[in-house]
Every structure is written in structure tokens, then in C-alpha cells.
Specification:
single chain, mainly alpha, globular, Phosphohydrolase, hydrolase, HDIG_dom
Length: about 180
């Protein structure tokens, strides 16, 4: 399973803290073991169920885009704001890689092999299941905070700088698909 996770996530190597990198990898290993989805499914299923049945952007395309945007945003903020608003890049990267890991428990495949929200996912949305998986693997609270607050549920609490970055990277690569102006 470790080999599959490393193939899915070459961005894990951007996490400099070896312990955090290993824990982040372990969360994905456990999620894949418990999920009905395979690594191949993640390359083909849509990243969201909210944009209609013909939506083609895959889970992994979206996830990797979020991680890349978050990384570049964190680097730019560190470059411009320095010690006034420091971004912990390892926390940011781990949180970005893990923010949607709970979808592996939220989604199931229907009889036509399409991703749909399963019963578990209807009751326990992915920010919650993602935090549960992360805590099981010893992920630190500042990363669990990113997972918990990246979606709409996070609008009820104060977000860390890293959580704001992941939240906006996630929504800027989701809302234009869902709410774009069509001319």
C-alpha cells in the first residue's frame, strides 16, 4: 500500500519533517485499505458530486492542484510577509494532502461504478472522518485543524494561516466549476 500512496502522492516528498511525512503517508494507507475505492478509482472519479453526473475533473487532479496552489501560496506569503505572518510549510503541505482523505470513506461506487455518497458519508462528512483517520495516525493538531476547517464546516471557527490557505486553494478550484458564469 505504501508504494501506491507514494505513486499517488509524489508531493509527500515536499514535507521536510520525516516523522510528519511518514504519518501523512500512513493516513492515506489506512484510508485506501478501508475504502471501497482503489487508487485507479481516484484517478477517474470526479472530485465532487456537486457539479453533475458529467463532471470530468478527477479526484486526484483536483487534490494535486490544491496541494500545488497551497505550496506556492505559502512560499509567496513567507517571501513577502516573512516573520509577520509565517507559514509552516510542512503543516501546510500535510494538511493540503490530507484535507480530502475522508472522502475515501464518504464515497462508495454505485452499480454503474460511479462515485456516490454512501450512508456513512451522509452522516459523517469527510472533514470529520479525515480528522479521525489523521488522529489515529498521530497527526498533530495543527494539521488536523486544516482537515477540519477546509470545508464549509470551518466557517464556524477561527482558522490558522495554513488552514486559510488550504481552504482557499480548495474553494478556488471548486467554486468556478460549480458557480461559474456561463455566457
Amino acid at each position: 500500500m505504501r508504494k501506491i500512496v507514494k505513486e499517488l502522492w509524489p508531493e509527500l516528498n515536499w514535507i521536510e519533517d520525516e516523522v510528519l511525512r511518514e504519518k501523512t503517508t500512513k493516513v492515506w494507507e489506512i484510508a485506501l485499505e478501508r475504502s471501497v475505492l482503489s487508487d485507479e478509482d481516484l484517478q477517474r472519479i470526479p472530485f465532487t458530486l456537486l457539479c453533475g453526473p458529467d463532471f470530468k475533473v478527477s479526484f486526484m487532479d483536483h487534490k494535486q492542484c490544491v496541494v500545488h496552489i497551497a505550496k506556492e501560496s505559502g512560499e509567496k506569503m513567507n517571501s513577502f510577509f516573512k516573520d509577520e505572518l509565517p507559514v509552516d510549510m510542512d503543516v501546510l503541505l500535510s494538511g493540503a494532502i490530507l484535507c480530502d482523505v475522508g472522502k475515501l470513506l464518504e464515497y462508495i461506487l454505485d452499480e454503474d461504478d460511479n462515485a456516490v455518497q454512501g450512508t456513512y458519508g451522509k452522516y459523517i462528512r469527510h472533514p470529520f472522518s479525515g480528522v479521525s483517520l489523521a488522529e489515529e495516525c498521530g497527526i498533530p493538531p495543527e494539521v488536523c485543524h486544516i482537515i477540519a476547517t477546509h470545508a464549509g464546516e470551518g466557517n464556524m471557527v477561527k482558522r490558522s494561516t495554513e488552514a486559510y490557505i488550504v481552504h482557499h486553494a480548495d474553494f478556488m478550484t471548486f467554486l468556478p466549476f460549480k458557480e461559474r458564469l456561463k455566457v
